[in-house]
Amino acid sequence: MRIEHTFRNLEPTETIKDHTAEKLGKLQKYFRAPLDAEVTFSLERHQFAIDVKVTADGLVYIGREESGDMFLSVDKVINKIRSQVTRDKGATAQRRRSSYPPAQ
């Protein structure tokens, strides 16, 4: 798993990097190949904005969240990405199931 952290108008801290890596690590169970993530932390109008772009198995998932707490923003954006992944995986599984001929 490769995670690229970018900080804009903020000082980088190891605690937020570790928290983000831990949360993104939980998404790895949905993919066969290691995931690549680009995480951008920024301070906009006294709000912490987190942009996440996850690439795995040839698919790209993007999420953005703004709030007053950086850790809360990370948790919310990872939940958004997780819902995108599970929705996509469910649609893929449904297509696979429907491609078989019905049993006689």
Give a description of the structure.
The protein is of the alpha+beta class. The protein has one domain (2-98): Double Stranded RNA Binding Domain (2-Layer Sandwich), CATH 3.30.160. Helix content is 39%, strand content 34%. It has 2 helices and 4 strands; from the N terminus they run βαβββα. The chain has helices at 14-25, 70-98; strands at 2-8, 36-44, 47-56, 59-67. The longest helix has 29 residues, at 70-98. The relative contact order is 0.16. The model has no long low-confidence stretch (mean pLDDT 88).
Q: Topology, pairings included?
A:
Layout: E1 2-8, H1 14-25, E2 36-44, E3 47-56, E4 59-67, H2 70-98
Parallel strand pairs: 1-2
Antiparallel strand pairs: 2-3, 3-4
User: CA-to-CA gap between the ends?
Assistant: 45 Å
- Mean pLDDT across residues: 88
- What is the helix fraction of residues, given as a range? 25-40%
Low-confidence stretches: none
Strand order of the largest sheet: 1-2-3-4
